[in-house]
Amino acid sequence: MSIRDASKRASNESLEGKNPHLVREAGPLHPRVQIAIDHMRANLHRRITLAELADVANLSASHLSRLFKTHMRLSPAEYHRRLRMEKARHLIATSLLSIKEIMVMAGYNNRRHFLRHFRKSFGVSPSEYRRTASDSLRQPARFAETE
Question: Is the pLDDT of residue 95 over 70?
């Protein structure tokens, strides 16, 4: 699989459910919250303002923020940041793209902010994460010994 195919597959996969950092309340989402989340997912590569999300969902910014916090237990900005970090984590683990390329694909233009957010989200730097992910793939599977 080429790098382009891997990054395309990674960007098309649903991020919710794969990241324990994405919190969601049980039950169906409010349709306006779903519209906002869909817009976030389609625009992971760039920053999105609350005003833009509110405009897309056809709500006031304060009403969208309240609805979002009720249904997702996170602010829209925090949820978007977590989506972006999950995309970066997935690309680091599954692609051969450079950290800088991944940083840009996740919507960051400042390396320091990207590194700080990644470390805050996953407890390690992106290069440490890549190293541990590749180490676990290289080690042969160990089977339990039977007697």
Answer: yes
